[in-house]
Amino acid sequence: MAKTSSIEKNNRRRKLAAQTAGKRKRLKEIANDLKRPAEERFAARLKLAEMPRNSNPTRIRNRCELTGRARGTYRKFKLCRNQLRELASQGRIPGIVKSSW
Fold this sequence. Notes:
It contains three helices and two strands.
């Protein structure tokens, strides 16, 4: 089980990224538009730099929904490899069967 503080920190990052997604998208469009004057594009880059770091979606970590484990997480199931194997062996995930030969 991961530390509760790291799980909560990641949840705060998700929330902040969702709140600032629109503003961040507009500023990036302005900054990358070569038809606009250089001063305007530079001002948009400065505003982007002033935004909180945790509002950037790349700072969000994929974590297991059950344990909070950060590594070895399958995006499709939102589970870490350990929990995925355990639940699949118990037959709790539809369509997945642990192979044996």
